Amino acid sequence: DNIELTSGGSDDFITEVTPGLSVSREAPQLQAQANYQFQNLWYKDNSDFDDNYHNFRGIADAQFLNNAMTINATGNYDQQNIDPERAVGFSNLLQTGNRTDVARGSITPTYTTTLAPHFDSQLLYSYSVVRYVDTDDTDVDVEDSDRHFVRAIVGDLTDPGLIDWQTNYQYSRTEFDEGGETFEYQRLGGEIGWAINPRARWIVSGGKESDVEDD
Questions:
Q1: Closest to 12 (Cα-Cα) out of 81, 95, 76
Q2: What is the DSSP letter of 136?
Q3: Integer Cα distance of 95 and 79 in angstroms
């Protein structure tokens, strides 16, 4: 009854046909799943809005070195709102001029090892990208980005007993195209946990992070 999300309202009758395909693989060292949908929309009174959309989501996890090393990979292709000051539609049926295609992907290797009893370490690195596609129908200035994320943890990670602990450090750097400012963030923290009973635990944590406005 209001396909453009305007104050005056604009109603229409919409036909939607969305075939899809899902594939998956389960193995001791590899788990993977991919889902694809092809959304087709036809508007009875506003044929200019007729369109089709691709939607994809894939994820894969692989284990190496007796499960000490894991690699996670993700990929997404869908549509999203790009300007929070404009009408925000919850689906592609609403024609607000505020949605566009976006492709996202990431790869994240993680290495975990036990250095001594109750003394483990984990090192994670993640590289992710955001790429906007088919932005001709909107006048919003969108920027692609690349993000690097590193996290290191040392502590009692695999077998917490009466008392467990950990210290962690993380760093992220996001680079935008079109001359956008680079955003950097760092955090150093730690925590100590004490088991009250098998189902409850006190946790005391603290840390310091970089100044978001300065960085």
A1: 95
A2: T
A3: 12
Q: What is the mean pLDDT of each run of 10 residues along the chain (215 residues)?
A: 85 96 95 98 94 97 92 96 88 90 97 87 97 74 92 87 91 87 93 91 95 75
Q: Which of 16, 7, 8, 19 is nearest to 93 (CA)?
A: 16
* Alpha helices by DSSP H, 28-131: none
* Distance of alpha carbon 208 from alpha carbon 215, whole angstroms: 14
Q: Is the separation of the CB atoms in 181 and 143 below 8 Å?
A: no
The model's pTM is: 0.83
Cβ neighbors of 51 (< 8 A, separation 6 or more) are 41, 92
What is the C-alpha separation between 99 and 5, in angstroms, rounded?
13
Residues contacting 26, CB < 8 A, separation 6+: none
Cα separation values, 71 from 28, 32, 62, 112, 156, Å: 14, 12, 5, 12, 22
| 158 within 8 A of 170, measured Cβ to Cβ | no
Identify which of 119, 121, 107 has the alpha carbon closest to the alpha carbon of residue 70.
107
